[in-house]
Amino acid sequence: RQAKMIELEQANKEYDALKKDLPKHLCESHDTICHGVRNQRKLTHALSRYHPEHPKGKLHPHFTRLSFPPQANNKAYVLKDTEAQVLNLGPKFVPPAPEQVLERLPKEIKIMQEKVSEAWRKATKTIGREPPIVKTFSDRIENEIRKTVETEKPKNSILKSTITLFQKLQKQKKVIFRQTDKSKVFHIDNPENYIEKSTTYMSRTNAYIEISTSPLREMIEQTDKFLRNLVTKKQMPQSMLDRLRPSRTESELPHLYYNPKDHKLGEPLRPIVSGMKSPLSKIASFLDRLIRPLFDKHTPYALSNSIIFLKHLKQFKTTSETNLYTFDITDLYTMIPQKEAVLAICEFLGRHGYRKVQGLTINTIKEMFMHILENSYFVLQLPGLKPKFYRQIKGGAMGSACTQVLADIYVRKWENEFVQQQQQQGELYLRFRDDVFLTTRLPQEQIKIFLSEINKKDPNLTITWEGGKTVDYLDVTTTIEIPNFRTKVFRKLAAQPYVLPFHSSHPIHIKRNIPYAAALRATRICSHSEDLRSELEKIRITLLLNKYPPRFIDKHIGRFFQDVTEQRTSDLLLGERHQAYRERTLEPEWKKKEKRKIEFGKDILLHFTYTPSLAHFGSRFHQIWQEIFEDTPLDDIPVMYANRVSDSLRHLLVKKRPSKEAIKLLP
User: Which keywords fit this entry according to its UniProt record (predicted)?
Assistant: First the structure.
């Protein structure tokens, strides 16, 4: 953390030095965009509503930790104030795009016609083309949507031109846009820096070898042959072959891209392999569904979320001798040895008495894992360079569905002795993926020696650790208090107060859930009412900085208070019964509504692109449906009108996908 702070200070000095050498008109945006909020008086007034006991001067944004609006991480381009404003909206922001709504509309209407026609034929038990009544309904809906959208006036004329400018700069290879790994804001850098960091990562891990041509055709053919051989040998049923075999027309070669880790020194890159349409993706997802439940069943110390972590903490009794440690396994998914990891899965299944899993023998499962690892190929196309093809020879692909469970079981074998020792001593040992949390009463020198010995146990696994009376783990800061822990929300040093901006072109129900979910998360994590009070204030500031109206924030955080305490104020939640109310929220099923499951064989689910002028079109849609289909066979058929959003700034600016020629089989 100290190293990151020094780096940030150095970056500020370099930026100030750069400003001195620039013309005045290029520096004007710095003071207006990068310091404080744009309307400090309004923010101060809003905060005073929640804290009337404090003078307004103390509620000024510069007196709080969250004293700035979200900022894009810019390393490459001097921004004008309008350009900075657009980038500071963040990757989640969806600009209003009525032209895209109209562009998508013919396809959406066609899909609607097909679904409604099919429902009509089923209800009337007829065979034929599109019924005239469906054509009447479709034309009516299309005309109503066009009429509504065409009257929508553009709210920000600068937004579209600025996005076009950024796309042009990226096409000219002058800048590259990415989304940061943790803070989820824009990262702007020179393409040369990305190429240099990519080269550094490749050489450091030594997990990839370059090949000369695209292996996609070979991957499809080898996978199809492998699956057919399993069926021939009666190791797998024919029905499974139909589900797992790859499609020649839809398959794509996985591609590697990077997200910058702005919370770490030097902002290294996190590698991610996108393989959703890989020839191996169906097998990988199947293996994850097969093995993951067994791992969870036999590994009670494995965490799936923060709620389970908090429950473990609540049951543990601390003493004055208790110390906390966390450690992280470096580059876990890339560094695990492939054959040893698969053997660890076979050993895990055998040790727990599984001779077969869903009809598949351990040997068949082993062969399927090995086929995935031995055929782990991808393409990498860096800015301005031709695509390069690679085979991964160590570890599993970051992004493959089965890599996680493969690594989990390999680490499970590695940590087994230490886990047993912790349990015998009555201490905690908890792991979430490659991050471990533990308690100990051993002296500091002794535990460091012990962790150093663990670090030497497997040359493929390297750990880094830190410890004391307070540690940060997952999204929780944990401090030892007797007889229990004190917990509060943890934010990384580089974290920014960024959520979906209020004026993003999203349906309102999505924005309503953001204050509610933030208050729920804070209540679950904060063990003391004073920490919760502080966290609720930070939530309000964050929402205000993202343009949420004060009344809107008050209403939907109040809705959470109502659900927990049956009062719309925070008085009871922050009072003497805080622990009792917190206990309610720690139940995973708390306030989960039982949603009616969609019956895809019967229900009609229709999606249309959202724009602000269509915010209330859902009710109009059902009104038209009722007018046309009343007293017809479709009168009682459930029909659901749903929204999809238009392209976000991330879709418009972050270009990670290689050229079509590099990832597809072309005719």
Answer: Coiled coil
Phi and psi at 56, nearest 5°, equal: -60, -30
Pinpoint the alpha helices (H) of 546-577: 550-565
Burial of 314-346, coded b for 16+ CB within 10 Å and e otherwise, reads: eeeebeeebbbbbbebebbbbbbbbeebbebbb
Cis omega before residue 443 (within 30°)?
no
Residue 319, CA atoms < 13 Å, CB-side half-sphere: 6
Packing angle of the helix pair 508-525, 306-315 (nearest 10 deg)? 20
The structure tokens 């050489």 sit at 203
Token pair, residue 296, equals 């969870």
**CB-based contact 73:262 (threshold 8 Å):** yes
Q: What tokens does 552 get?
A: 């809107």
What's the average model confidence in pLDDT over 412-437?
A: 95
Cα gap 514→522, rounded to integer Å: 12
> Residue ranges per domain, the chain?
1-66+506-575, 98-154+591-610+612-644
3-state secondary structure of 576: coil
Task: Judge contact between 278 and 252, C-beta under 8 A.
Answer: yes
Helices and strands in the chain, H and E counts? 24, 19
Question: Sign of dihedral through CA atoms 310, 314, 316, 317?
Answer: positive
Residue 438 has pLDDT above 90, yes or no: yes
CB environment 16-36: b (16+ within 10 A), e (fewer): eeeeeeeeeeeeebbeebbeb
> How many other CB atoms are found less than 10 A from the CB of residue 628?
15
On the question of pLDDT at 234 being above 90, the answer is yes
As beta bridge partners, residue 122 has: none
H/E element, 114: helix 98-124
Phi, psi dihedral angles at 526 (to 5 degrees)? -75, 115
Q: Quick one: pLDDT at residue 68? A: 59
> Quick one: angle between helices 281-298 and 338-351, nearest 10?
50
Across the range 416-422, mean pLDDT stands at: 94
The DSSP string of 217-285 is HHHHHHHHHHHHHHHHTTSS-HHHHHHHSPPTTT----EEEEEE-TTSTT-PEEEEEE-TT-TTHHHHH
Q: How far is CA 300 from the centre of its chain?
A: 25
Could you give the 3-state DSSP secondary structure of residue 292?
helix
Start-end of H helices in 299-375: 306-315, 332-335, 338-351, 362-374
Residue written as token pair 């109206």: 549
Pairing relation of β-strands 485-489 and 377-380? unpaired
Closest C-alpha among 445, 446, 473 to residue 325: 473
Structure tokens at 509: 């129900």
Of the candidates 401, 391, 398, 399, the one whose C-alpha atom is nearest the C-alpha of residue 369 is 401
* Per-residue pLDDT tens digits for 118-140: 999 999 888 877 789 999 999 99
With contact defined as beta carbons under 8 Å apart, do 342 and 374 qualify? no
Residues in Cβ contact with 552 at an 8 Å cutoff, skipping those fewer than 6 apart: 502, 511, 515
In the chain, what are the helix, strand and coil shares in percent, each to the nearest 5? 50, 15, 35
Predicted model pTM: 0.86
Residue 254 contacts residue 378 (beta carbons within 8 Å): yes
